Amino acid sequence: MKLKPLKQSLNNKGQSLVVFVALLPVLTLIIAFIFELGNASSIKNKYENIITNTVSYGLNHQEDENLENKLKRLLDANLDGDKEVTIDENNITIHVKYTPQGIYSKLFKQNFEIDLTYQGQFASKKITKE
């Protein structure tokens, strides 16, 4: 029976543990970044849906009094960030800017920014993203 391979095997286990412990923080940051990116994407999809629905509401209720205020209240009730609603003779334009806060952005001072502008045309009832 040879004992040398057993001794080498024990040394390799120690080396593997050191490498794992050294790489653990890097792996943790990568996983945090993936979750942060997924969260930002989810928030952006939510914002796009709410803005599209708000523009659609405005296009279907263009004769309402104080339509601009109604649209602003809808956005304020459902979204955070800076919101701007503009209505002219032919269009409704909604611009929203939001910066979600998360672990990655706090650690690295690098923020994901959501900057969306949608426009609805009264004549064609089309909604376009700018």
Give a quick rundown of the structure.
By secondary structure, the protein is an alpha+beta fold. 58% of the residues lie in helices and 19% in strands.
Strand order of the largest sheet: 1-2-3-4
Gyration radius from CA atoms, angstroms = 26 Å
Strand content: 15-25%
How many β-strands, per DSSP?
A: 4
Structural class: alpha+beta
Q: Could you state the order of secondary-structure elements as H and E?
A: HHEEHEE
Q: Low-confidence parts, pLDDT < 50 over ≥5 residues?
A: none
Helix content: 55-70%
Indicate the overall shape. Answer: rod-shaped
Q: Largest sheet, if any?
A: 4 strands, antiparallel
Count of helical stretches: 3
The span between the termini is: 75 Å
Keywords for this structure?
130 residues, alpha+beta, 3 helices, 19% strand
Descriptive overview:
The protein is α+β, with helices and mostly antiparallel strands and 130 residues long. It has one domain (4-129). Helix content is 58%, strand content 19%. The protein contains three helices and four strands, in the order H-H-E-E-H-E-E. Strands 1-2-3-4 form a four-stranded antiparallel beta sheet, covered by helices on one side. The radius of gyration is 26 Å and the shape is rod-shaped. The mean pLDDT is 87.
